[in-house]
Design a protein that fits this description.
Distance between the termini: 24 Å
Shape: elongated
Order of helices and strands: EEEE
Helix content: under 10%
Number of domains: 1
Largest sheet: 4 strands, antiparallel
Length: 60
């Protein structure tokens, strides 16, 4: 018997971390995201956040 392997979709995410208050946020990956680059402004302390992780998750 031959089993068919269905491809599961992968969604990419970016994690940003504030260097000041250490708050983290996860969002969908955007074209141009680069590790350790400055990203959006922290909503808590208004400091530029840094991209600390880019990863993909398989959707079941």
């Amino acid at each position: 018997m031959i089993f068919s392997k269905k491809e599961k979709p992968i969604v990419a995410f970016t994690v940003e971390k504030c260097p000041s208050c250490k708050k983290e946020s996860k969002r969908k990956f955007k074209e141009g995201d680069i590790l350790f680059a400055q990203a959006s402004e922290c909503k808590e302390c208004k400091v530029k956040m840094m991209i600390t992780k880019i990863f993909g998750e398989i959707i079941e």
